[in-house]
């Protein structure tokens, strides 16, 4: 018997700030050709990465790769998240209006305290 076998590893990514609001998840389709997306990417209801003209819908729970085919992914639609860990389209910055839209959907954005 091995009592000290290493099975896995957990690293903290600081995406979730607290569990004061419940973490609620739903499935969403990420369109083919979107590419590889990281956990914490903010997407709209059509699964597109957040940019200027889109309304945020959720935050990816896990890394996904929709380079050559559409992918059904899980997104957080409720919870408390670290603003600095959220990912949006390159060259775009999460706006105050985006944060308000997320809050209206029960996603609260704040800063992580270590």
Task: Write a brief caption for the model.
This protein has one helix at 96-104, and strands spanning 16-18, 24-30, 35-37, 42-43, 58-60, 64-66, 71-82, 107-110. By secondary structure, the protein is mostly beta strands.
Structure write-up:
The protein has about 110 residues and is mainly beta. It has one helix and eight strands; from the N terminus they run βββββββαβ. The strands form two sheets. Strands 1, 2, 4, 5, 7 and 8 form a six-stranded mixed β-sheet that branches. The protein has a two-stranded antiparallel sheet with strand order 3-6. The mean pLDDT is about 90.
Topology:
Elements: E1 16-18, E2 24-30, E3 35-37, E4 42-43, E5 58-60, E6 64-66, E7 71-82, H1 96-104, E8 107-110
Parallel strand pairs: 7-8
Antiparallel strand pairs: 1-7, 2-7, 3-6, 4-5, 5-7
Q: Which series of helices and strands comes N to C?
A: EEEEEEEHE
User: Whole-number average pLDDT?
Assistant: 91
Which percent range describes the beta-strand content?
25-35%
> What is the count of β-strands?
8
Number of helices: 1
């Amino acid at each position: 018997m091995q009592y000290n076998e290493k099975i896995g590893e957990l690293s903290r990514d600081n995406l979730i700030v607290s569990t004061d609001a419940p973490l609620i998840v739903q499935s969403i389709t990420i369109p083919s050709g979107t590419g590889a997306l990281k956990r914490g990417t903010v997407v709209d209801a059509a699964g597109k990465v957040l940019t200027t003209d889109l309304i945020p819908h959720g935050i990816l729970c896990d890394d996904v790769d929709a380079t050559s085919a559409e992918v059904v992914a899980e997104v957080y639609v409720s919870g408390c998240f670290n603003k600095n860990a959220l990912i949006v389209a390159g060259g775009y910055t999460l706006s105050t209006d985006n944060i308000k839209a997320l809050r209206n959907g029960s996603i609260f954005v704040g800063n992580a305290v270590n």
